[in-house]
Amino acid sequence: MNIVAFRDFLRARFPEAHAPQPAAEAQPVAGGASCIEALDLRKGAVTEVVVPAPGSGAGLLIAGLLQREGACREPTALVDGADAFDPWSLTQDVLERVLWVRCCDPAKAIRATDLLLRDGNIPLVVLDLQAHPVRTVQGLPSSTWHRLRMLAEKSGACLCTFTPARAVPCAQTRALVRQRWSLMDQYREHTELLASLPLQIDRQRPRATLPAAMKATA
């Protein structure tokens, strides 16, 4: 049986697994801890955070991911695609669990992310490309993102990417950050700013589940 016939057989045998999923409407999410939860960081999946404008709060969200509850017990990798991360935004005990990979261009950042996912010893890899031009990030081949997704699936790691525009076709969850800050916000605490940071979810695929018949034969 060739691959086309096998695909048609699976489609006929398990139609519910191949049914098209309706596109999720964009929906706002409150800030604070719930905005971290809204990203729905799943093992073996890719999450994309789109930051259309600089200074929208991506740095706060990255810091929130690195110091999220439970993160102090497990290592996290930050692939800094433009060498823009401010380590002073984190406490020393959090920094001790963060592998900070400093890059200057997307190609090197992608290679570093590839190696980290292949290694499989870091449960969360954050790839920050949001400081690069939209054309550069969207010019990355879709095969690159699908390769990273497959590596994440194989290793059981979660990949969370920050981009200046929609660029990851295989993202399990996509969120938009469009916060505008005032000059007085610079005097507020980071925790307070994160609590007021809204997210907009414009794509969230349901968790993949195997049909009962397939589970029985797996």
Task: Please outline the helices and strands.
Blueprint: H1 3-13, H2 15-18, E1 27-29, H3 33-38, E2 46-50, H4 58-66, E3 76-80, H5 92-95, E4 98-102, H6 106-119, E5 124-128, H7 134-138, H8 142-155, E6 158-163, E7 173-176, H9 190-195, E8 199-204, H10 212-217
Parallel strand pairs: 2-6, 2-7, 3-4, 3-5, 5-6
Antiparallel strand pairs: 1-8, 7-8
Helix pairs in contact: 6-8
Describe this structure as you would to a colleague.
With 218 residues, this protein is of the alpha/beta class. It has one domain (22-205): Rossmann fold (3-Layer(aba) Sandwich), CATH 3.40.50.300. Helix content is 36%, strand content 18%. The chain has ten helices and eight strands. Strands 1-8-7-2-6-5-3-4 form an eight-stranded mixed beta sheet, with helices on both faces. α5 (92-95) links the parallel β3 and β4. α6 (106-119) packs parallel to α8 (142-155). The protein is globular and about 65 Å long. Mean pLDDT is 79; it is low at 20-33 and 209-218.
Which key phrases capture this entry?
218 residues, alpha/beta, Rossmann fold, 8-stranded mixed β-sheet, 10 helices, 8 strands, 36% helix
Give the structure's gist in a few sentences.
The chain is an alpha/beta fold and about 220 residues long. The chain is about 35% helix and about 20% strand. It has helices spanning about 5-15, 15-20, 35-40, 60-65, 90-95, 105-120, 135-140, 140-155, 190-195, 210-215; strands at about 25-30, 45-50, 75-80, 100, 125-130, 160-165, 175, 200-205.
